[in-house]
Amino acid sequence: MLRKSLFTTAALTAIVAAAMIVSAQGPPQGKGDGKGKGDGKGKGGPPAGQMIVKIKDGFYEVTGAGGNTSVRVTKDGLIVVDTKNLGEANYNDLMAQIKTVSTLPVKYVVITHVHQDHSGNTKSFEDAGAKVIANEGEKAELATYTAPAGKPAEPNVTYGKKTTIKLGGVKAEVYHFSRAHTGGDSVVYFPDLKIVAGGDAIVNGAPNIDFADGGSAVEWPKLIASTLKLDFDTLIPGHGNVMTKADVMAYKMKWDTFVARAEEQVKKGTPKDKLLASIKTDDIGWNVTGAQWTPPARLDPFYEELSKAKK
Ligand SMILES: [Zn+2]
Question: 37 or 270: which carries more pLDDT confidence?
Answer without folding.
Answer: 270
